[in-house]
Write a structure and sequence with these properties.
29% of the residues lie in helices and 36% in strands. It has 9 helices and 23 strands. The chain is elongated and about 125 Å long. The model is unreliable at 1-21 and 226-245 (pLDDT under 50).
């Protein structure tokens, strides 16, 4: 066995040889220039990380006015050193003094406990709701005046928090308007503290976001009873069938009748086979398909009228206990248009869930035409008795007839065209009936005229 040790530059290599097998251990230790380079890299890395953190902090703290003052300090100092401008020193010193005087306004922590409670989180379009905001200083020191920013949808509510001692609470009532249907996101709330000139500003954000559902305007419409399908819990009709629950009469046996429906008492009295007859009972299964294509609506108000009409019909169906299915086209990526087909189904478990779904229904250019929506609705909903197609004034009757043709012959199809300002009218075609409404309140009496 032999041990050999060689030193090459700044590396020390130790090798051990035993009977042809070699085990080599490398102990690396950099010295001289290599060690200085490594130390320099570590120093520059730490300095770069510190500069990055400082830059991020400056980006969050310094406002546009502050960056303007920083630029004035740099330009003034450069002019004074390069060309000996006394005015440059004056301007630079004044700008630096303003920056220095703004720093004390940021000192200290923002120890607030902020809460925002709504009197209700659901409202009808066009109404207002109140919210109670309270801010409590949970710190040990006095909290300087601050500004609380509350994003409400695309708007912003500003609440001014005064100077608060430790444990003090500031309460305020805010009014939020909901002029249009939709889902309003409230938050995240941000407390801002800064100097009076707006040079520096420090923010603290609460990530919680609350939602307000702005329901569409609805009206009362008559109950729908047309095209009711057979069901154990349904209403009786004048249609006579051989098997149901509501007894009607007895008739003489004809070849092909089932022996299960033979009335043996009547058969014994007459000496002939007699068959029991029943009145058919039916229960409505309703589908409402809403067109989301903005090209079929001339204005945004026209689309809102269509959504309100669909919500009014759906609300009445839920109250009547009907089996309801509300469909609309799902968003289709532009590259998959014409290849991909998908619909979205709105919740119908109860009236509140249905109206919440209607609140989030928006128009989109990346949707299927109403014919495709009707076709998929017919495939997914079995044994429909009544279908209501909610469309805009730009949808021609020929397209509505093609959409109605996708349903079975015993399904009643009614298209409701929303055209603000138009005279309400009713047209009857072979496949469907077309109701045109000029305003939402026309819907009720037009449904009565259509006798559904």
């Amino acid at each position: 066995m032999s041990d050999n040790t060689q030193t090459r530059g700044s590396y020390t290599v130790t090798g051990t040889h035993t009977r042809g097998a070699t085990v080599t251990r490398y102990a690396t230790q950099r010295t001289g220039i290599a060690a200085q380079v490594d130390a320099g890299r570590r120093v520059f890395g730490r300095a770069g990380a510190a500069v990055a953190r400082a830059g991020a902090l400056a980006g969050r703290t310094v406002r546009p006015v502050g960056w303007l003052l920083v630029g004035v300090v740099i330009l003034g100092t450069t002019g004074a050193l390069a060309w000996g401008w006394t005015e440059g020193w004056v301007v630079a010193v004044c700008a630096a003094l303003v920056l220095a005087l703004s720093v004390p306004f940021l000192l200290g922590k923002q120890n607030y406990e902020v809460s925002l409670k709504f009197e209700r989180d659901r409202v009808v379009a066009g109404q207002e709701l109140n919210a109670s905001m309270s801010a409590r200083n949970v710190g040990r020191r006095v909290a300087l005046p601050s500004l609380l920013d509350i994003p409400v949808g695309e708007g912003l509510i500003e609440a001014h928090l005064p100077l608060l001692r430790s444990g003090s609470v500031h309460a305020e009532t805010l009014t939020i308007s909901a002029p249009r249907r939709g889902v309003i996101a409230v938050g995240p709330m941000t407390v801002s503290r800064g100097d009076p000139l707006g040079v520096l500003q420090r923010d603290h954000t609460w990530p919680e976001i609350q939602h307000i559902y702005v329901h569409p305007v609805t009206i009362g419409v008559p109950s729908t009873s047309a095209g009711m399908l057979r069901d154990l819990e349904g209403a009786t009709t004048k249609t006579i069938v051989d098997s149901d629950l509501s007894f009607h009469a007895i008739r003489e046996y004809t070849p092909g009748d089932s022996s299960r429906h033979i009335d043996w008492k009547s058969t014994a009295k007459t000496g002939k086979y007699m068959i029991r007859q029943f009145e058919e009972t039916r229960r409505a299964r309703i589908a409402i398909a809403v067109d989301r294509d903005p090209e079929q609506f001339t204005t945004d108000d026209e689309f809102e009228t269509a959504v309100s009409a669909a919500a009014s019909l759906a609300l009445q169906a839920v109250r009547d206990g009907r089996e309801l299915n509300i469909t609309a086209s799902a968003d289709i990526p532009p590259h998959a248009r014409g290849v991909m087909h998908a619909i979205r189904t709105l919740p119908t478990l109860n009236a509140v869930a249905m109206l919440d779904g209607m609140s989030a229904l928006e128009s989109s250019t990346d949707v299927m035409p109403i014919e495709a929506v009707a076709n998929m609705t017919a495939q997914e909903s079995e044994r429909l008795s009544l279908v209501l197609l909610i469309v805009g004034s730009a949808t021609p009757v020929a397209r509505l007839r093609r959409a109605a043709a996708t349903f079975s012959a015993d399904t009643t199809v009614i298209a409701i065209r929303c055209e603000p300002g138009a005279e309400p009218s009713l047209r009857t075609a072979r496949e469907l009936r077309v109701i045109t409404i000029g305003m939402l309140h026309d819907l009720g009496h037009m449904l009565l005229r259509s006798s559904i």
